[in-house]
Amino acid sequence: MVEKFELHTDVLVLGSGPAGFAAAYTAAKNGAGVILVEQGGDVGGISTSGLMSHWTGSCGSPLYYEILKRSAEKNEGSFKDEITALIDPEKLKTLYLEMLDEAGCRLMLYTFAEDAICDGDKVTGATVINKSGRTDIYADVVIDATGDGDIAARAGAKFILGRESDNKMQPATLMFKVGGVDYDRAVFLGSFESTYDTPDGELQALAREHIPYPAGHILTYKTTLPGVVTCNMTNAVDIDGTCAQDLTKATLTCRRQMEDIVKYLRRFVPGYENCFIISSASLIGIRETRHFKGRYTLTERDILEAKVFEDYVVKDAYFNFDVHNLTGAGLDKTGVQKHFSQTEGYTIPYRCLIPEAKENLLLCGRNISGTHIAHSNFRVMPICIGIGEAAGAAAYISVSRGTGLNDIDAKDIRKIIGI
Length: 419
Fold this sequence. Notes:
Helix content: 25-40%
Shape: globular
Low-confidence stretches: none
Largest sheet: 7 strands, mixed
CATH superfamily of the largest domain: FAD/NAD(P)-binding domain
Oligomer: single chain
Order of helices and strands: EHEHHEEEEHEEEEHEEHEEHEEEHHH
CATH topology of the largest domain: FAD/NAD(P)-binding domain
Radius of gyration: 21 Å
């Protein structure tokens, strides 16, 4: 028989990726009682367990820059005290834990968010499960930072799965690192539209020819460690990240591709002749699943026009339309990278974090209310930190003032964040 427990807190944050970490840290730092629930054994989601190579895009989030600064202090060798977008996942795991401890956040690792606890349209908590049993956690504010919006969905919040026209979603990826790379000669291609000619041919074209479908591109990134390169090159299409069977399929598909990718690197890419795999992610990278219906839905037009909303709570968000090919390798025909024309940062309104017709619940991270194309921009980690910071500040205001989430003035959120 599974034991059943009960807990109470001001703020419950589900999921500890960059968005969930930011929400929990911000709410706790300002004085709210916070419980942060994470299904894995480390904090950080894709930024750590997902073995992400670097912080992609940018955001005018003070917390994001604090993370960069404190990460620099932990770097070693030539990167010591150097602020860089490169990520050392092991250092970042420790930094997240230290910051949560400083803020007084209660952390529950190895704990899965199972279901929403609701009183009509009011979300009053969530049921979680771990080796100790099931626990009903009641909270004044629930923040869904699960990426896929699992608890928001279980609470009945409305959403669209994937692309509006056909519900297809961006492919999944398992990141991995190779060692033994000669950095003096190594080629680093950081985007699908980056090319490099060799005597054997152009590297992206060679990848399509020699790496089995649905993989077939080269994306290689420097790390903070000598001779080590992060590869963003595995690919699994037709994956629904809300389906456990598909997650298993994606992991198997990507792992089977790794050996062929290394063979390609050794044969064709300068500096990689003696490379070998040294580590791989323990978390499959899911780029897109549910897009929830919020009080406002951010569109690609809002981003292209760099729209400044009256109720903005994220500012200077900047990236491109990074739509990975939904049917194979490379950039999707709807994606725009080097030809992205908007050079200014955009804002995200508070209304995108509030699901329609639900109370006490905030969306946080890539599951906020936005279109398929807009999501391909705001899903990146620095922007997700900005979203999480805003969610945490809103939660603190709500519990400290006894104010409903719908009644919070975005100016008060911005004041707490410092933007």
